[in-house]
Amino acid sequence: MSLPDRSLRVVQPVLDRTPSSDVHPQSRMPNTLRAPTPAEASRGVAIAHFSVYRGIIARLRPGERFQMETRLGTYEMSARNFEGAFPNIIETPSYLTGTDSTPDGCYYSIPRTPPRQAAPLRVAS
Hints:
- This protein is an alpha+beta fold.
- A four-stranded mixed beta sheet has the order 1-3-4-6. Strands 2-5 form a two-stranded antiparallel ribbon.
- The protein has helices at residues 12-15, 38-42, 54-57, 79-85, 87-90, 93-96, and strands at residues 45-49, 52-53, 65-70, 73-77, 107-108, 122-123.
- It has one domain.
- A hairpin with a 2-residue loop joins strand 3 and strand 4.
């Protein structure tokens, strides 16, 4: 997968990784990816975006984190944190396999208010 925006090339190595699970290699990716700031990178953040994309989470290495930016706050977590805090999301058809309108999409949009389980994962902005 290739990104056209030069400012995002630093995240290309993450996107080029083989997913660690059975997620479809062409699963949907966020349109608003950005590279982590130096402070975020020092905490292990590899990539930042909005919504939950299985294609990104499946490419994280142990110890790496992703950052999810919403209008209500910023949340940072590892794949293991995500799976533990959001078991209902990882079992949804849209996250597992995609929907009828986006087969192999494998993403989940967070509702207007992030779930309570996200509170411990919120970071200061």
